[in-house]
Sequence to fold (206 residues):
Amino acid sequence: MSAVDPIRWLRDFAALIDEHTDELTELDAAIGDADHGSNMRRGTAAVVAAFDEPSAPLPSAVLKQAGMVLIRSIGGASGPLYGTFFLRAAAASAEAPLDATGFAKSFRAGLDGIVARGKAEAGDKTMFDALAPAADILDEKVSAGASLADALDAALAAVEAGRDATIPMLARKGRASYLGERSVGHQDPGATSAALLVRAARQAVL
Ligand code: ADP
Ligand code: MG
Fold:
């Protein structure tokens, strides 16, 4: 049974964030305060630094620790949002591996946590607009019996389409909402990092 390796997921997320730090910062410079790249790099690097190398802990323990470290180490809105994603995903995965069913369930719980925290709705131009279509297709594929790799391929296409779909949106949540009409025509930074989160999960299927 294939599963997402949680440590690989978080390491690859950190590596992708590191590769895309400047892009995330430039996107946030256009409609925010130019700190999304540095926020995410600081947070994900702290998550990786906190891994306890010799142990092979349960996925839930890895995800829970990641959530706590992100909340502690990121100053901006994305800290509590991504932090809550991982805390809720951890609670949903309990002692189970992140196989197709377990991963879809954890991802959905994580998304619900982001909504509980930030109250974003579809079309508000946030990370939600990228993550929600990914959660939907994951549920759909997994219920239909798809493999985890196939479900995550579909989720990656959905998260990237959701990210791109934020460009014409008018921001209604977060700092970008202060810009009103001037937020239109720019890709949301959090939706962009969210696509990297799913890309990292796809890479972490073992
Ligand atoms: P800050 O806005 O505090 O500077 P970041 O720049 O790190 O924090 O993160 C900005 C991203 O956070 C936005 O691009 C958006 O995707 C996401 N975001 C902001 N507010 C919300 C919210 N209420 N719900 C979901 N996502 C949000
Ligand atoms: Mg910012």
